[in-house]
Amino acid sequence: MGISITGMSDLGQQAYEKLRVGILDGELPPGSPLSHRKLAQLFGTSTIPVAAALQRLEAEGFVESRARAGTRVKMPTVGEISGNYIVREALESQAARLFAQSATPLQKKRLLRLANDLDKRYRSLDKQVTPSREAQAEVEKRHVEFHLEIAKATGCQELVLAIEKSRVLLFNWLFSRSGEYVPLPQGWHTRLAEDLSTGQPLSADEAMRLHVTFRRDDILRHFAELERAAEGKIERGPQHRKVSGTFATKLQNLPR
């Protein structure tokens, strides 16, 4: 059994990657129970690599363990989500200002091309009655790449690392995926790329703040409802009871 560069066994790395993708793709929504034994059975391995994978995911903020309740996909509090938005707004607005000040014509052209491609992908999702998780996940990966491109164009590696390390983009993706799919405004990313390419730092800052906080209040209300449901203060609706996807279904159907 090999050891990965992270110090985790190959089996542990594979379990980590499968679980991380399952969480980010919405197969394992917030609050999903994660049984060490059932996961080991599903992955065809012992519980040791599964435990290592879950430990790493917990350190990264994707899962949580509670006494007598076991391990589950992290159910973020409204306060944590609000804090994530504050951090993302601060980091990405600064990236937008620096991009407007220093981006080269070639970098601006590349960002606009990425934005056009991203908007086309979102429009393709909008045409589907119920977009598949796989299709949404692929578009969201492009979305993360688009925002990191802005940071990379600033030439400030520390800013890029701060955005990557804080995982604000990934967590925002996770929060958005927990609710129903909602189409974005037409040309949403193309307009942002154009605003950032004007050479006006203040305008770029304002455009990015509006972009980052889009749907924030809806997502906060959604998670507030989930919090109240978890506390038994409101009746759980059908959307909270049904299993989310094939990953969760397989786990649920394994023998106890």
In short:
This protein is 68% helix and 3% strand. By secondary structure, the protein is mainly α.
Account of the protein in words:
With 256 residues, the protein is mainly alpha-helical. It has 2 domains: 10-75 and 236-253, Arc Repressor Mutant, subunit A; 78-214, GntR ligand-binding domain-like (Four Helix Bundle (Hemerythrin (Met), subunit A), Up-down Bundle). Helix content is 68%, strand content 3%. It contains 13 helices and 2 strands. The chain has a two-stranded antiparallel ribbon. A hairpin with a 3-residue loop joins strand 1 and strand 2 (70-73). Helix 4 runs antiparallel to helix 10 (201-212) and helix 5 (105-126) packs antiparallel against helix 9. The longest helix has 25 residues, at 78-102. The protein is elongated and about 60 Å long. Residues 234-243 have low confidence and may be disordered.
Considering the chains and any ligands shown, give keywords for the structure.
single chain; 256 residues; mainly alpha; Arc Repressor Mutant, subunit A; Four Helix Bundle (Hemerythrin (Met), subunit A); two-stranded antiparallel sheet; 13 helices; 3% strand; elongated
Spell out the helices and strands N to C.
HHHEEHHHHHHHHHH
Share of helical residues: 55-70%
Tell me which oligomeric state these chains represent: single chain
Kindly report the CATH topology of the largest domain.
Answer: Four Helix Bundle (Hemerythrin (Met), subunit A)
In the predicted model, the low-confidence regions spanning at least 5 consecutive residues are: 234-243
Structural class: mainly alpha
> Looking at this structure, what is the CATH superfamily of the largest domain?
GntR ligand-binding domain-like
Distance between the termini: 28 Å
Tell the overall outline. elongated
Portion in beta strands: under 5%
CATH class of the largest domain, anyone?
A: Mainly Alpha
Report on the biggest sheet: 2 strands, antiparallel
Can you tell me the CATH architecture of the largest domain?
A: Up-down Bundle
Q: What is the number of E strands?
A: 2
Q: Count up the helices.
A: 13
Number of domains: 2
| Strand line-up of the largest beta sheet | 1-2
